[in-house]
Amino acid sequence: MGNYTFACLMVAVQLDITGLIDAGMNTPNKLSQQLNLSQKGMQLYLLILAHLGYIKIIDEQISNTSLAQDYLNQHSPYFWGEVLKDPNNIYNINHLDKKILTSLKHEYELECNQRSVTDMWQQDTLDQQSAAAFTHLMHSQGFASAVSAINTGIFNHVNRLLDAGAGSGTIALAFCDAYPQRQAIIFDLAPVCTIAKDYVAP
Fold first, then answer.
1. Of all helices (H) and strands (E), which one includes residue 111?
2. Coil, strand or helix: which one is 64?
3. 65 and 56 in contact (C-beta within 8 Å)?
């Protein structure tokens, strides 16, 4: 996932997130208004920067960490501007930074066949091809985490599990692998459940 991390930092420098926070734009709402970007998109993006250690978010108030002040602050002697702005397009990351910037302008982050996955979900218009693409993607990203979560023992005393919005059934599958005598129910839209059967069968 290194390319995504790199692209997120490129966007931070392109938008001068560090400088804006220092200038008092220290909430998701202020940043999104200043940059004319989606507030929901900005909130999600800031969570990524926080996870990477470049900002802290406490009660919706954002502050820069020393990591950001060192490497993302254009006035710092250690500023990675030439690398992160990449004016000569040396780093080929498939224009991921442009995709992130585009997604920050809209409420929706995931699309399939030029349609918002969120819209399809809410309007119950998810077609089989989009359901398959999205479900396979989410399974590949989530199954290892599901197994890890089950292995913590958090479900030791659960006999029947409802996996709501289950997708491929990552949690349900991991649960039944760990506890073969117990039951799990997968609950999702019909096209997704059709795909889930392919994961349940083996």
1. strand 111-112
2. strand
3. yes
Please, what is the average pLDDT of the chain?
88
Percentages of the chain per state (helix, strand, coil), in multiples of 5: 55, 10, 35
3-state SS class at 17: helix
Residue 110 is predicted with a pLDDT of: 67
Rounded to a whole number of angstroms, the distance between the first and last alpha carbons of the chain is 29
Instruction: Kindly give, in sequence order, each residue whose CB lies less than 8 Å from that of residue 103, ignoring residues fewer than 6 positions away.
Output: 41, 109
71 pairs with which residues across the strands?
A: none
169 contacts 200 by C-beta, under 8 angstroms: yes
* Strand residue runs (E) in the chain: 55-58, 61-64, 111-112, 115-116, 160-164, 183-187
Least confident of 40-49, 78-87, 123-132: 78-87
**Gap between the Cα atoms of 150 and 16, Å rounded:** 40
Query: Which among 22, 24, 15 has a CA at the least distance from the CA of 84?
Result: 15
pTM for this entry: 0.58
Number of other residues whose CB lies within 10 A of the CB of residue 103 = 19
